[in-house]
Amino acid sequence: MVRSKAPSKKQQKKGIDFKKIKRKLGRKLPPPKNATNTEIKSKAIVLPEQSVATNKEGLAVSKKGLTLKELLQQSSHHNAKVRRDALMGIKDLVINHPAELRQHRYAVIEKLRERISDDDKVVREALYQLFKSEIFPGCAEDNQGLFISLLMTYIFNAMTNLAIDIRLMAFKFFDLVVQYYPPCFSLYAEKILQSYEDILRKNQFYLEDKGKLKTTLSGLVRCLSLLPSKKPESEKSISGDRIIHAFEPDTPTANTGFSTIIKKLKELVLVLINCFQDFIPLLNSMPQLDVLSFDCILSMLQSIDIAVRFFIYGIHEETPESICDQTLSSALSKKLLGVFPLYPKHHLSVKEDDRYFILNVVIAAIFLHLRELVCPSANVFEKFLEFIENALLGTICSSTRSGKATWEKHIPLLLPFIPKLASEVQTGWQSRILESFTWTFKDCNPESSLKLACLSMIEEMLIPRGYMHYTKASDTVVLDYQTVWIRELPLLLNLLGDKQPSSSQVVLCLLLRLGQFSGSNPFLFGEYENIQFALSEFYSTCQEGNLYYGPFMRLPRDCQELSICCLYYFSNLNVLLLKSLTFCCLCSELEPFVSFRIIEVLHAAYKAGHIQIVDHISFFMTLLSRFKILPESICPVRESDVKVSNHGTFKSLTAMLCSYLSQMGDSSVVFHIVEKAILGLILLQPPLENACAMLRVLIVLDSKPTLLSEQSIIALSNFLPGYLMDVVHCIPEDDVQTWRYYILPCFFMFDRSSKLLKLVLDVIGSFLTDSNLSLPSDTSTRYATDSLSRINATISLLLLIYKDVKVRKIISSFRTEIGSILQSIASLQSSEVKMTLEERHRFQSSVLEKHFPLVRMVGNQPRGRSSFVGNIEKKYRFS
């Protein structure tokens, strides 16, 4: 076989241009050899002054470290989640840094208002909560007019949005604006009413989603409640502007542009009536009235009721007849009043009965407002009267606790019409209406708003006004119920106690009005007089020797003032009520101002002839004799005693009563009554302060020469020495002002009756000579039990008398009695009385220092020493 030749190298190179590389499937191709490497490698350069974090030092940031400016920028991000997170971040920042909102409030509102029409539901809700919880409360004190104007343009734009959810959220935002700035409704009333009318015409949404309708209607009720109106007489209260106590809405009272919206409001009422009419088939078809349907219907009826009240009582130029034209009256009569009363088809639950009761009450109120305009037939009118009677008696509502609460909350809506109904209906219905109203008044909770509303109506029916004519004495039906109402008032005061001062104030205002009006009404006059016994428990009572204070003591000052003013209008204040008031005045817990006010009003009542003179003086004497002085010491040592001392109060009381007693008419008659009363009280040995007060009363009413009887002079001669000894022992000698206050009444008596002074000196002499004899005052026996105490007390007393110039002149004619007293002192000290060294020293320092003035009083040896002094020196051996 022939071997082939191997190819040459030239042949091999010539045949292969590029080397073919076999690649395995799935392997990544290597980069080409001429590829450019674009990788950049670098090292971080740390420059602290250029750090992003340091730019936020000192700035308020959220939890994620974002500033307010960054969060506001993110609030308009295209991503809904970012927008929501930005709103949550703003809320977090504002909570932790409230100053940020105050500083940038207008920028925040200007930026966030764009989100009112946001396409995302979650973002809109987050914005609403942000405004509700942080922005509106944080800007409450700012210029709200500018603040609201920034929002209203965007709210109105949202109200015209094609998306129904955005439109509903706009109404929700406007409701929030009205809550914080009510005047904004008057500025945009026409636009707002038009927007509500447009949204309510779209019945396809509210029949499907009642929750959205409920939110919209609740805002409408709030707006309409701001319509100004002149309250009818029956809705005015006892005090001031007479607003019914159960309802006091914050509504404007001036015409602020609402007169131009009558037409829009009429159109809105017609739309609301149609909405209500659309719900009636649903009520009949539903097995049970659910909560959402009930809330929607109730808001519709409340809106209609407020609008009707504005038509009739509103502050505008049109008359109710021109507003409630044929179209509106026909719609109200047929579509609303024609379906009354609403009743459940199936009695499945107690709550359902209560809900229908509430709806019927509102419809009945609308009817009663329109009664004179729609002119109902007798059958229709009687149907409403039957409902009112049953509603007042509580037979329609359930008897459960929730049913009772529902009844008390909503029945006041019917009460303003009771006075006028009772004055216009026939006698049979008049008795039934008043009977049911009286049951309501007596059965409701004393602390409830229903009780206050009943009190307002009672005033209307007790104190007649222009449109009521049933308070004549011949109208026995009404008089019987009036008697029941008046007699319930004091009992109600005691039930309220001091827990509800505002309710007690209303009752007291009514009592005061009754007292003021009773003078022109014989029936009210008699009934007002008869409440004194029940009213005495309001002040205080004494049962089986135990004293119980009534609510009067714990009520605020304004309530106490009202109750005190009521006392003036009783034509004959009985003793029981006076006794009750006396206990209050003597209570240390009662403020002195209140006590003085009671005395002032009672004295005015006495001058008007409402209190017998004997009872009035007895009241004064009881105050003077039983007033308890705190602390008991006249000159307190401890600082705590000074703080609680009522000595100054008692001095003011004494001066006040002395002034009143001196103005009570014939001074001689008053004096003899007071004299007899004081002598009887003195025999009871009253405390020093009370005795001084009664003595001051005597000298104010007495004259010179004295009017005191012989019996009184003898009684006083036995009492005054002990009283004077008490003054000497209780009051320090250097406290001249205090001892003069207590001893001055005695000096006046000595000046007016020399016989009294002689008898007093005789009693003092007997007191020294007879060791077994004690002075009538129980305190003197405690101070002067030994010979030394008797000598010191007597000498100090005589020196007090000597210091007064007038009494010194008077006593100069009684040298014999004074000399006898001094001789008794000498005899007492020269007797075989055993004394310790300490007693002797005290006697020397106290007696010998005072002997010269005493000697001059009797005129013995003015330039030398008296025999009395000589005997003392001889006994104790000192010169």
From TrEMBL:
Renumbered residue ranges of the record's region Disordered: 1-37
Primary localisation category: nucleus
Compositional bias annotation for Basic residues: 1-13
Keywords: Nucleus
A Pfam family reported for this protein in Swiss-Prot or TrEMBL: Ipi1_N
Family matches, as InterPro entries: ARM-like, ARM-type_fold, Ipi1_N, TPR_TEX10
SUPFAM superfamilies: ARM repeat (SSF48371)
Record-annotated TEX10-like TPR repeats domain positions: 483-833
Record localization: Nucleus, Nucleolus; Nucleus, Nucleoplasm
Annotated Pre-rRNA-processing protein Ipi1 N-terminal domain residues: 146-215
UniProt-listed PANTHER family: REGULATOR OF MICROTUBULE DYNAMICS PROTEIN (PTHR16056), TESTIS-EXPRESSED PROTEIN 10 (PTHR16056:SF2)
Family: Belongs to the IPI1/TEX10 family.
Record-given protein name: Pre-rRNA-processing protein Ipi1 N-terminal domain-containing protein
Source organism of this protein record: Hibiscus sabdariffa
